[in-house]
Amino acid sequence: MATKTSRRANPGYRCSECGWTTAKWVGRCGECQAWGTVTEAGADASSGRTPAATVATPAVPIGEIDASQARFHTTGVSELDRVLGGGLVPGAVVLMAGEPGIGKSTLLLDVAAKVARHRRPEGSTRSVLYVTGEESAAQVRLRADRIGAVADTLFLAAETDLGRALGQIEKAEPDLLIVDSVQTLQSQSVDGTAGGVTQVREVAASLINEAKSRNMTTVLVGHVTKDGSIAGPRLLEHLVDVVCQFEGERHSRLRLVRAVKNRYGPTDEVGCFDLGDAGIVSLEDPSGLFLSGTLNPVEGTCVTVTLEGRRPLVAEVQSLLTPSGQGSPRRTVSGLDSARINMILAVLQRRAGFPLNQDDCYVATVGGVRLTEPASDLAAALAIASAKLNAVVPKGLIAFGELGLAGEVRPVPGIGRRIREAARLGFRRAVVPKSPEPLGELPDGVAVAEVRTLTEALETMKDWAS
Question: Which PROSITE patterns does this chain map to (predicted)?
């Protein structure tokens, strides 16, 4: 007698962070190694393959596709255009992430007003819809008055329900949609609270579908967690076209925007902004913010050139040494990596003969800038040596290079570009690592000393000081 094989529905489990699936529940994701993110995905509706459906729009040769529909439109903010690769692309979805209070809403409100005021070649203006779920419409209007971001075609809606937000989009038919923030919208069709994994996934998918179907540029504001990563499922970062990170210290006016992911442009550009009472403005030349500006040179200071993406920035490193009154000397670092400063202190003592084990050492940058690039090692070493010798680093000198444990100075990328940026600001002496590649054409009147070791760099500094 023939027996009928019955199949038990397999619910399946999915990781909320990366989308990895498994037939059995596990406590740790086998793909991204995150704990507690594997949840039940629901029963399989069918065990067969998905049947082919009727094609609404047949495929066409790539040469017949009109590429002008995806051209860049300026945001009116030059530094943001630099990061995005030229501006906003119709139909693109941009995720702007950053800590609370860092200036995301201020920047995007300014962008919304400038896009609404910008006229097309035929003379018409673009409409912009700003959906806020964190503030009331009156609160956003107060900020718009303060920063001068009021425009006739800029529409404002305070909504926390996804359905009503989609209704606002259908009624306004905007060219640009800004949602502040994606964690505050909630869909009634799925379970969970606003900001949860299920809700964020549903809200993002619905907004992305609207953006693609209407050819509408969409900017989503996202929150970050305590460790600085974007809140919500990692699937959100994969779905959007551009992911921008908003960075900055609360006590500093400087704000940096960098593209972590960009389907339409480079990811090594950085935009610099100044956040003040009148709003946020672009900084075309931010190097002056990171120099002390003292008239008389002081021992323990040295200027370096760091690369933020492809942009060279001139910054000053300051050091102070005082006799330690305790058995263990203090090491305090601000704006640099404390582990690298400890390594530089060890190299100075072991390779250059500087007795530093009885001194409290304080090392900091000027202007709140954070130097994470190893190219700032040589400037930090010369600043500490200058403080120990009680000798001033020659005026107009810059130094950069990675320092090794053997006391060698290693090459860094963009040496010629760094020297040209320093020369533009008036620096005429440079201590740089010996590079196997030519430096290219350098400005007139700039003396460049290429060194291989820390000892050579210290001797060069002493020779130029005499």
Answer: RECA_2
